[in-house]
Fold this sequence. Notes:
CATH architecture of the largest domain: 4-Layer Sandwich
CATH topology of the largest domain: Glutamine Phosphoribosylpyrophosphate, subunit 1, domain 1
Number of strands: 23
CATH class of the largest domain: Alpha Beta
Helix content: 25-40%
Number of helices: 18
Shape: globular
Strand content: 15-25%
Bound molecules: adenosine monophosphate
Radius of gyration: 22 Å
Largest sheet: 7 strands, antiparallel
Amino acid sequence: xxxxxxxxxxxxxxxxxxxxxxxxxxxxxxxxxxxxxxxxxxxxxxxxxxxxxxxxxxxxxxxxxxxxxxxxxxxxxxxxxxxxxxxxxxxxxxxxxxxxxxxxxxxxxxxxxxxxxxxxxxxxxxxxxxxxxxxxxxxxxxxxxxxxxxxxxxxxxxxxxxxxxxxxxxxxxxxxxxxxxxxxxxxxxxxxxxxxxxxxxxxxxxxxxxxxxxxxxxxxxxxxxxxxxxxxxxxxxxxxxxxxxxxxxxxxxxxxxxxxxxxxxxxxxxxxxxxxxxxxxxxxxxxxxxxxxxxxxxxxxxxxxxxxxxxxxxxxxxxxxxxxxxxxxxxxxxxxxxxxxxxxxxxxxxxxxxxxxxxxxxxxxxxxxxxxxxxxxxxxxxxxxxxxxxxxxxxxxxxxxxxxxxxxxxxxxxxxxxxxxxxxxxxxxxxxxxxxxxxxxxxxxxxxxxxxxxxxxxxxxxxxxxxxx
Length: 469
Ligand code: AMP
């Protein structure tokens, strides 16, 4: 995020490969392609050939940014890549990653998934070292420049000296002329995993990126772990451990791809179990169960199985919707989700429908999807959500919303039900959510539901106020 910029979110995908003899830029391209759901605003790849670094980043989807020609220029045997989430107010090429910073040790390329919460402090630290105006520097760049300017004879020394003062969520991949370095913050807030492809080493935000290039998932990079990979293979270092773990629970609910494995748990199966529990906790007499594509589908399958109701497809999603730079005009904007989803009237007509989805943030999509089902002839619409009411903003890397935009922060469940126009509305309990995922509660940050943040955050930081500064 830019300091004085959109301080609330920075969900992204990161990828890295150390692969002598491999076309590492191409592997990184396909790795980022698999992580496209984590960020659609910009994409970038940096490579190193032992002496020089090469970098290309631009606005747009991964396959809009890269061509055979610019991949061919990304030479070397080590690469990192980044795809950045679409956010308001900060959509500019300056914020694209990887970032390149210079130092007496050479060049460092740096890519970050997460969001920092002590950027003012970090900016002061940087200003003491360098005579720079920090107001337009992103939190990622701040971290990169603090590492580059830290004392220490090696990059690892500098990283280990710098990270203890950095507070927030960070899964990092870095590239020097000879090393690939991956780091996960001590709370382990954003996912990051390590894989093997023949003689190559691969790191990625999610295991689906390893599958895509034929790499094998070895393990999670541990909270507080720094892995440095060079010609001698990987070396692991640990930072001071945090008081607790705080893996983002929303990765399981919505953000991660269902075919990713996080903490030995396939996200798809966790979502199916959320649906099964939801059916037990929030049963309803109905004719069929549908999921809102794509997030709600696995849970709808689980809900149907557990309730004994038939599962049908009620919406067809345009699979090619992606992100377009062609802005819809006002009439098309009013159609809203119709650009993405189309209901199946012959399936829905006269039916009492259970519509399963992953979360309610502002409630606007739900309002439109419920109305769409009614226009398509549904007799009743019962909305079921595989998460508890989201009442707190995320400061650690998920672009939810400011508190006053979160519908559950100001309305009760019956009021939300009325607002979205549903016949009934039911949320999964926190306990049900945890049991469905099947990992100990102490694994997670679920501050969006509980307000129990793993670290001190500046509550109700208003991104628009910050942007205006
Ligand atoms: P609503 O609050 O009704 O507009 O619905 C929000 C929907 O957007 C959810 O059902 C998710 O599928 C999706 N969603 C949830 N969180 C996010 C996020 N951080 N960024 C983008 N989409 C999200």
